[in-house]
Amino acid sequence: MNEFDTGLPSRKAAEELLKEAETHNIGLWSNHSRYVAICAQKIADACGMDSEKAYVLGLLHDIGRKFGTRHLGHVYDGYKYMLKLGYFQVARICLTHSFGIKDMHSYIGNFDISLDEQKELENELLTLEYDDYDKLIQLCDALGTADGVVEIELRMQDVKNRYGYYPHDKWDKNIELKEYFEKIANKNIYSIVFD
Predict the structure, then answer these.
(1) pTM score > 0.70 for this model?
(2) pLDDT tens for residues 108-153?
(3) Quick one: DSSP state of residue 195?
(4) DSSP string, 70-130
(5) Rounded-to-integer distance, Cα 65 and Cα 73, Å
(6) What is the C-alpha to C-alpha distance for residues 88 and 91, in angstroms, rounded to an integer?
(7) By the 8 A CB rule, do 48 and 4 touch?
(8) Is the separation of the CB atoms in 16 and 158 below 8 Å?
(9) What are the tens digits of pLDDT across the range 144-164?
């Protein structure tokens, strides 16, 4: 079985994909992706999940940013790019990481894709039943910044400061995800990610 059969690149291939993507769009997003990956690996390990898979998914969740500085566009671009490469598990994460709440209108940022592309994402999103990897990357996306891993409330406040708002139900969902993984790990999330 090779990495295309599993829909997931190896760690080395994922790191090469991110490195190559950085040459097209230099920015803080790539360091954010690295911290999300590290955070995902640690939490997955504490929860008995596949920590290598979690690392790869975290590392590539924002790979759509390779194609430029876009908002919802980065979700669409990453999803399509990973599908094209045959990395179906990563494509799924590119889509789900921004939607802890399965509603296109919960997206924070500009809807900078066509209505047809929005409908395509929405239809795909609605067919998915979130698994623990979807939830894990959603959580870690709310913990990781370009400078490191921070407490979830600080990260959400940072997003609120940058965009002018942060939906209350999305805020609550992130806290719920934190509590969900704390229950599985039987540990405080911060004792895991700050270790």
Answers:
(1) yes
(2) 888 999 999 999 999 999 999 999 999 999 999 999 999 999 999 9
(3) -
(4) -SHHHHHHHHHHHHHHT-HHHHHHHHHTT-SSS-GGG--S---S-HHHHHHHHHHHHH---
(5) 8
(6) 5
(7) no
(8) no
(9) 999 999 999 988 888 888 888
